[in-house]
């Protein structure tokens, strides 16, 4: 039985030596472990041959416990700690059996079967722990390999997600650029609709300026003649007429200047700066511009424009060029609707656009004041199936090339998001459409 402790010590050294084969500590311990295995063999053979009466067991057990103590004290062997400590029962059983045989040989002879069983059980325990440790290490290695594979998959997935993120970012930037280009295209399209109307509106004050200028030249000639005659009273009367003409020239010149400045403001990018604005004046101006713009394309088109403008309307704090775009879009759509209906309606049909404004107050003690702008036409109306989509970007009921599908979408954003207002539609197919815009003062 004394042979088991030596065999266990030898196998322990070999097991540690094999486990360190691929470790960084291999170079440090390989030669020492090889020497230790030969030392175990060198002690075992003489001890078994020359020692008797339990001393081989005592020496084998002490050798095994010494190997356990040394291995347990080295940091390089800590991964094998549980397997190393599994040798403790065999070492203790060998020393106990050897001491009992030396000190109490009769007691040992009587119970030697128990001591042999304890030694064999200790040796079997070592192999059981070795098998368990080996299985655990295989599972650990498998888990490590799986972790490596998972880390690799995570890295690959992260790289894919990063690439997708970069692609999405580029797509977003492209969409934002395209959006700005489309918005600018819509602005230019609306400005194009106004071109003819602008020309008509400017032509009227320019005609007045030209006419009054010609009359003033004639009056100056008359005044020179009267002064030459010495009739100062008549000359003073003529001078008063000239003054009136000049005042009218200034009035119409400012009118033309206001139209040009308004269109320049409409065409340039919005500064998002709100300012006090006369909604009545703004709406009336864009109504006439939209009407004359359409008449420039179709000389046969005529429509009645009815205005109900609240004279007590307060100044509204808005972005004038943005609100102007909303009004222009509503007027253009209204004129388009009545023009389309006129093509198929009978002779009794009379295209009519009604513009009304009024001041409203929200209910409650602290009700805020708002301005309501209503644009109604007696045109084709909007089908119920289309009504829900009318504010969506790129949706249009007009033929290809006649609408961008952005007008009402941008109008909705300007009113709701830009000014905290509302825009509602009331319509009946074939009869009328009414857009109601409310903007907080």
UniProtKB/TrEMBL annotation:
Top EC category: transferase
Gene Ontology molecular function: phosphorelay sensor kinase activity
EC number per UniProt: 2.7.13.3
Gene: fixL_2
InterPro entries: HATPase_C_sf, HATPase_dom, His_kinase_dom, HisK_dim/P_dom, HisK_dim/P_sf, Sig_transdc_His_kin-like_C
Superkingdom of the source species: Bacteria
Keywords, sorted A to Z: Phosphoprotein, Transferase
Taxon lineage: Bacteria, Pseudomonadati, Bacteroidota, Sphingobacteriia, Sphingobacteriales
Protein known as: histidine kinase
Organism: Mucilaginibacter gotjawali
Reactions accelerated catalytically: ATP + protein L-histidine = ADP + protein N-phospho-L-histidine
